[in-house]
From TrEMBL:
One of its GO terms (molecular function) is oxidoreductase activity. The keyword Signal applies. Residues 3-201 form the DSBA-like thioredoxin domain. It comes from Vagococcus fluvialis bH819. InterPro entries: DSBA-like_thioredoxin_dom, Thioredoxin-like_sf. It comes from the Bacteria. Pfam families: DSBA (PF01323). This is DSBA oxidoreductase.
């Protein structure tokens, strides 16, 4: 079974979902999890357009964090710490490029490790994951050679791979993250409970020829019809 896991480092509901997907991988070791980038706010202008200004984005997004923290099995979000942090809310671009560069070097396992480390830096440690020093720290912590990583991180080919994932999400008609695509035809939308994910995977394993099954009620971050980033 192949599961394509579309997620964004700055997506609050993707944080608890990644934790659950690690449990899924442990429970079903033969499941192949492929990591796909999904960008909620690629550049600064995206945040400004979605929230009126880059400065206002942080205040609004922290409201999403409260709901995501309730969804998170471990309730790890440090909301008060982020309120006190002086930096603007980061964009998707640097962290997704970093995770993708790690994938080029070490495959999906490296992508996942770097992705989770960057999310922990943002949501728990309240570090600015746009800061190259924070990215370097994460890369070194994950035993990736920085001199090997840096030229890949800044290459046009790495950015193209991110855009290829974003294009694939559009082809799948995915509008938010997290989102799972199973065997290219079944979908699980949002940060579902571990029980729902397991039940769906097991059902698909038995009924491989069923049409796309979309689980509708999970918490997700997406862009609404006005281009505003909402998490619910």
């Amino acid at each position: 079974m192949k599961i394509e896991f579309f997620h964004d480092v700055i997506c609050s509901f993707c944080f608890p979902m990644s934790y659950r997907m690690r449990q899924i991988k442990e429970r079903y070791p033969n499941v192949d999890i492929i990591h796909r980038s999904f960008a909620l706010a690629w550049e600064s202008d995206d945040l400004a357009n979605q929230f009126g200004s880059r400065d206002n984005a942080k205040n609004e997004i922290l409201k999403h964090w409260e709901h995501a923290n309730e969804n998170d099995d471990l309730h790890r979000f440090n909301i008060s710490g982020m309120k006190e942090a002086s930096f603007q809310f980061p964009t998707s671009k640097p962290a997704l490029l970093a995770a993708t560069a790690a994938k080029i070097i070490g495959g999906d396992a490296a992508y996942w490790n770097v992705f989770d480390s960057l999310q922990n830096k943002l949501f728990v440690e309240n570090k600015n994951i746009e800061d190259i020093n924070i990215i370097r720290e994460v890369i070194i912590q994950n035993n990736i050679d920085w001199l090997t990583f840096e030229p890949i991180f800044t290459s046009e080919e790495t950015e193209k791979k991110v855009f290829d994932d974003i294009k694939l999400a559009q082809e799948y008609n995915i509008h938010g993250a997290p989102f799972l695509v199973i065997n290219e035809k079944y979908g699980i939308n949002g940060a579902q409970s571990i029980e729902v994910i397991q039940e769906t995977i097991e059902k698909i394993a038995e009924e491989e020829h069923e049409p796309l099954i979309l689980i509708e009620n999970g918490s997700t971050c997406s862009l609404d019809k006005n281009g505003t980033w909402v998490c619910e």
